[in-house]
Amino acid sequence: MGGELGSRVASLLEDESWVGSIEGIDADPPRCRLRRTVFHRIVPGQHDRTVKVITDFNPHVVVHIAVWEPHARAGTATARSLTDDAATSILGAAAECSALESIIVRSGIEIYGRERGSVTRPSEQVASNPTSEYGRMVACIEQTADAIGKRIGVSVGSLRLATVLGPHVPSALGRLLRLPAVPFSLLADPPFTVIHQHDAAEAFVSAARARIDQPLNIVAPGAITALQAIRRGKRIPIPLLGPEWVAARRLSFLAGAPLPDHVQEMLHRGRLADNAKARDLIGFAPQLTTGDVIDQLYRWPSVVRTPAVRAVA
Amino acid sequence: MNGTAHRLADVITMPARNAGTQAASAATGTVRQLRNWTTNEVDDWGRDDAFVRRIWSLSHLRWSTSVGGAEHVPKRTGALIVVNARRFALAPVFAAIAIGATVNRPVRFVGRPDIAPLGPIMQRLGALLPVEAELESALRAGELIVLGASHTRTNLHSGVVDHQLVGSAVAAQVRVLPAATMSVSLQRNARVEIGGPIRLRHKRRGPLEELEIADRLRADINAVLDEMGGTMTGTPIDWLPNSWVARV
User: Fold this and answer.
1) Predicted local distance difference test score (pLDDT) of residue B53
2) Distance, in angstroms, between B41 CA and closest chain A CA?
């Protein structure tokens, strides 16, 4: 609940008439003012505290968003460890709650993988075959949640999000695209899709309201290629053929925008997904297209200066 | 003298200066075109409409394509259009682009290799991988898709239709239409004739349905090809029995 997405979901849930009390857990405090949500600051890995807070609260619905994308807020190894710790504690504790009816977990369209010959725009029926570290992480979360759901007899729904972009949302792709010069694959330059954080948050609320019991792809309509995104942002495109990607990754890392394997895979093989089912089942209708989100990405200022409310000197 | 030289320079433009201006203009035009091309938008499947329109305009240099039977193509829902394919004629590609230009809807085709750079270029044209899940997903999304039968040496008859790919249309519950394509290597004219939707006499519950639809498709395409009378050159050569032109 401390991240941008979690804070937004909590804020939207507060406005829902069917929601009674809300409690949230995160390592960081919420990013916005929440009126009736109780927040618990617990670091992932503090298993006993997490279990106590959740079992004491005994929720009807658990929305699990604690997924660390590699190189968004933490390096790959740390992100994997934090995600595993959070999933084990929260989902494990949820299984002990007698009132529990539904679990909604955050996943990603990286779960489908981009192996050669794989479906260009997979629907939820396509079997998962992750080919990146992040894809394997979200696949692990889905497996854990499904196993718990079957064991205790509650519905489990997973939202497979495209790369989430938004103001202040830490994202490896967002950081890369905002560099002054951006590499892209000259031979492939495949299309990909993203999702705005507000649309992703709306999807979580809709999914919790509908108590979904299956995976849903949550992506913005439309697609864009890396070169088109670079041109929209008036950045310098750097065409790469293959071996130079090793150097590009190092330079990008030095420039403050590390390039994890799932983002590199996206730049080489593209990443699309079919969101028709989400529209049919939970009425998911994103406000922004992929092109709009990319345009906004370049409009967001690097530093937001908030003037003082009251002059003190 | 100096003033006269200036006046002359105003009137006469030296060839070198002309060439330089033209080269600069061409370079600027190319850069502008490249800029436009790189800011195009792609749709949910990676198809670039502006790129398709450019290829369609470019194809007019070589082909003059006409489309018949467009009234059989649904206006909003998805449909699978199966065409005969002469070897090296790129029939599914041009049939998709020609039908798209006629019905004013994006039309995709099956047969993209998943390898760069050919695969991504074909994806911009609207190509899909020859994978059942990909076709089914596109058809469910209401897309029009052209599928080529197996290649033949001539336009006289259709090749075998892949029943597994036809099965994706059965699963998506959309219309399946036969279409005959006719073109000659030495001529400009090409024709795409779309037939009515396939309806089986007996409703099948199992996989026999796609097998029977595939067979009917092949038979219907052959019937349309027969009706079109084979390839014509408009010359007395057509009067000769077993004209060689019909066999190219």
Assistant:
1) 92
2) 7
∠ CA A24-A44-A134, nearest 5°, is 100
Q: Do A188 and B40 touch (CB under 8 A)?
A: no
Looking at residue B26, its pLDDT comes to 83
Same domain? For B136 and B204 the reply is yes
Residues B56 and B29 placed together within one structural domain of the fold: no
User: Minimal Cα–Cα distance from B51 to chain A, Å?
Assistant: 13
Look at residue B111 and tell me if it is in a domain. Answer: yes
pLDDT, position B62: 87
Q: Is A60 part of a structural domain of the chain?
A: yes
pLDDT for the residue numbered B5: 64
pLDDT of residue B175: 95
Q: In terms of DSSP H, where are the helices of A218-260?
A: 226-232, 244-254
- The residues on B that touch A, with CB distances below 8 Å, are 35, 38-46, 114-117, 119-120, 123, 128-129, 131, 133-134, 137-138, 140-141
CB contact under 8 A, A291 and B39: no
pLDDT of residue A126: 94
Q: What is the mean pLDDT of residues B86-113?
A: 92
- Regarding whether B141 and B54 lie in a shared domain, the answer is yes
Answer yes or no: do B145 and B91 share one domain.
yes
Any domain includes A35? yes
What's the distance, CA B241 to chain centroid? Answer: 31
Which chain A residues are closer than 8 Å to B129 by Cβ?
A: 117, 119-120
Q: Tell me, what's the pLDDT at B71?
A: 95
Distance CA A32, CA A96 (A): 30
User: B43, A187: Cβ pair inside 8 Å?
Assistant: no
Is B43 within a domain?
Answer: no
Residue B66 and residue B108 in one domain: yes
- The answer, for A146 touching chain B at a CB cutoff of 8 Å, is no
Answer whether A191 sits within 8 Å of B117, measured CB to CB.
no
> Does a structural domain hold residue B44?
no
Structural domain boundaries, residue B25 = 2-38
Quickly list H helices, chain B: 2-11, 15-38, 49-59, 91-103, 118-125, 132-140, 163-172, 208-228
Q: Give the model's pLDDT for residue B27.
A: 84
Which stretches of chain A drop beneath a pLDDT of 70? Answer: 302-305, 309, 311-313
Chain A residues within an 8 Å CB radius of B123: 120, 190-191
Report the domain count for chain B.
Answer: 2
Q: Inspect the interface and report whether the beta carbons of B137 and A188 lie closer than 8 Å.
A: no
Spell out which residues of chain B touch residue A270, defining contact as CB-CB under 8 Å: 46
Q: Is the dihedral of CA B16, B22, B24, B30 positive or negative?
A: negative
Give a yes or no: residue B136 inside a domain: yes
* Segment holding B196, helix H or strand E: none
Residues B144 and B123 in one domain: yes
Structural contact between residues B180 and B193, judged by C-beta atoms closer than 8 angstroms: yes
**pLDDT tier, B41 (very low <50, low <70, confident <90, very high otherwise):** confident
N-term to C-term CA, chain A: 36
Count of domains observed in chain A: 1
For residue B233, is pLDDT > 70? no
Domain match, B128 and B237 both: yes
What is the extent of the structural domain holding A119? 4-170+193-222+272-290
Tokens 């994978």 identify what position? B131
User: Using CB atoms, which residue from B42, B117, B128 is nearest to A225?
Assistant: B42
Mean of all residue pLDDT scores within chain B = 86
pLDDT at B248 over 50: no
State pLDDT tens for residues A28-51.
888 888 889 999 999 888 889 999
